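User: Show me an example of a complex going from sequences to structure tokens.

Assistant: Sure. Here are the input components:
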Amino acid sequence: MKLGHMSVPGDCNRISPILSHVGNKWAALTILVLSERPKRYNQLRREIETISQRMLTVTLRGLERDGLVAREVFAHKTPPQVEYSLTPLGETLVQPLFALCEWSALNCTEIERNQAAHDGEAGDPHASVA
Amino acid sequence: MKLGHMSVPGDCNRISPILSHVGNKWAALTILVLSERPKRYNQLRREIETISQRMLTVTLRGLERDGLVAREVFAHKTPPQVEYSLTPLGETLVQPLFALCEWSALNCTEIERNQAAHDGEAGDPHASVA
DNA sequence: CTGAATCCGCAGGGATACTG
DNA sequence: CAGTATCCCTGCGGATTCAG
């Protein structure tokens, strides 16, 4: 796959999984929350609030595996204290991710309107669609 | 959810679904491919190649619903010719999406190495991990 | 050519309970 | 506090078939 004038180095088949991985809901939120400063497990849980403990763990493991997030255990004993932080590589992801996040924030209202309008047309033939 | 100094207008709970939607593998690729120029159905199919016809249709419908992609039917008769193009709103998504795509392309090798290294440590205790 | 519809397997992801 | 393990359900997404 090629992108014409906007040449993307490498194969898009290699980047697409990565894209959908970091573009992932939980991963993206985690990166963004972590971009503020390193945080502990339950602190992340509280801040992302809608995340389940399972998905937080799974997401963190995945990001750790990618080398985007570092896990530091301060004491392997009472009470356990684990801190998660972005690696340098993870830091480089923040900006593009934030850009996309910003775009979403800026346009979510319009998108929601578009969706509602589109659904209205399709769902209700009696609507005043002319 | 707040992002501290990098204030994101609106609620992250509203943007996260959008983010995961446009960050979606097929949606992202479709937008990117369409950013080059408007294209027809089977042309998209060929260029994204790995996509199934079902997912292409589903993805296009979703993007259409969001108002990111426009669908234009040139003739509703023999042979049907349908062209898909980005809407102005869709155009605004190209840049941030491309930035993320670029990041993936730049770092996919390092990520793959990180993954391999991480898997090596965990998967094989006999590895020379010191 | 441009789809819609159906079947179906598999992974994502939530809830809950248990552990160190 | 910081996880792990299990259950289980939903939806993604591929393959195939039918239609205008």
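The lines above are the inputs; the final block is the predicted structure for all four components together. Chain A touches chain B through 64 residues (CB under 8 Å).
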